[in-house]
Amino acid sequence: MPHSYDNNNPLTTSAEILLGSETAAQEQGIDLDICLEASGLTRTQVSSGEGDLPLHKVVAFLNHAAAASQRGSFSLAVAKHQPPLRFAMTGQLVRFAPTLGEAIRGAIRFSILNSQYSIWALSEDEEKTILKRETRVQLQQSTSQLQTLALALTYKAMMAICQRQIPLSQVTFSHRKSEAHDELHSFFDAPILYNHPETSLVFPKKALEYAIPTANPQVYRLLWSHLERLATTNFEHLDLIERLRLELRQS
Known about the structure:
The chain is an alpha/beta fold. 48% of the residues lie in helices and 14% in strands. It has helices at residues 21-28, 32-39, 43-48, 55-69, 74-81, 88-95, 100-109, 144-162, 181-188, 217-235, 240-250, and strands spanning 3-4, 12-14, 52-54, 118-124, 128-135, 137-138, 170-172, 192-193, 199-204. The strands form three sheets. The chain has a five-stranded mixed β-sheet. Strands 1-6 form a two-stranded parallel ribbon.
């Protein structure tokens, strides 16, 4: 069970997660400045994608914007207008992985560099693969917009690196049914379950073997070594229990 989030000692996430917000706001007729003021963010932080942002401010911004749009689909609009592989150095790593499976495992290994909040896990059986998203802490505010953004961006990145469509057999969310269900169904093109124990993407196991056209083993090894050093530094900021959880999942 995740422990409660502390606004005075916040976890952070890359500011890149909000790239595309300005275009999404224009598209949905939202006054972005009101949402920024309500959440304590600046337009520069949202437009530049540089640095890290306190998680609770990102969640507040997404929630205010979704409420202002009255459509519940703001985070999905952000995902649509965001570069498909924005995940900083991790985004560079996955471009050079040999297969989609290796790319996902690499992204999971270094996910701490993009967000101190999310924990991703990959499980398989004979036919399907489940890419599951969990969290390190429990926020007091709704995270449905953040969950939607995270899954949409991940799915978009998976298709971008493979340069092909990846059929989903199911998408699950732990939150209640979204007002933007029809738009989500169109985006993922798969059945969507709500109030589910897990937030996840479910797809055929054979997709893990999809080759990545830009694969380069030498560059992949170099980037992996570099990210290992960066991740170790970030890893040290987590408390003992979280470090053990992260290490167990990555092993």
